[in-house]
Amino acid sequence: MKKSLRMKIALVLVVVLAVAGWFLLSAVWKTEEKAPAPLKILPDKVDLQARDVLYTEVGRGDVKYEIRAKTVRYLKKENTADFEDVNVKVIMPKGKVYTITSDHGTYDTEKKNISMTGHVVVESDIGERITTDRINYIDAEKKIHTDGPVKMVNKDIEIKGIGMTFMLDNKHLTLFRQVRAMVRSTR
């Protein structure tokens, strides 16, 4: 019986050592396997990418910008920020507020210019509304412009045309060609 017990203990010990050796060898083999390349999060040119962004800046002449976007990619070398699902609020020195929304926007961080594309809507705080598919804002001139089709609506008139310039300081709107207007009766 003693011999049989010793044999069983020896067999159990051999099995335990074999299992332990197998675990050790498999751990060594796993560390020798080449680790996968790290996940590339940002494209090469992008210095910073963020989601659900609010960017605020006070520009020259106390004009304030609030840019909200679903995503933003900042490219330092190009001095640009590319926004997706963007909402820009331009607050003028006398308190007039313009909100510009679009699918995509590019902001020049040096010149403070903004180009927006895709379902562009410009709304003033008094209900004026301009719609187009592409628009540019030139900060130095406080000018919004486009070469594409545009529609402007307020409580009294609806105007459509091709190409537009809108000067924010003096509210001067110019439509360039194929202009049609419909005046609403004020009765």
Describe this entry's structure for a reader:
- This protein has one helix at residues 2-32; strands spanning 48-58, 64-75, 80-91, 97-108, 114-124, 129-138, 143-153, 157-167, 172-183.
- By secondary structure, it is of the alpha+beta class.
- The chain has 2 domains: 1-35; 48-183, lipopolysaccharide transport protein A fold (Sandwich).
- The protein has a 9-stranded antiparallel β-sheet, with no helix packed on it.
- A hairpin with a 4-residue loop joins β6 and β7 (143-153).
- The chain starts with a helix and ends with a strand.
Task: Detail the topology: elements first, then pairings.
Blueprint: H1 2-32, E1 48-58, E2 64-75, E3 80-91, E4 97-108, E5 114-124, E6 129-138, E7 143-153, E8 157-167, E9 172-183
Antiparallel strand pairs: 1-2, 2-3, 3-4, 4-5, 5-6, 6-7, 7-8, 8-9
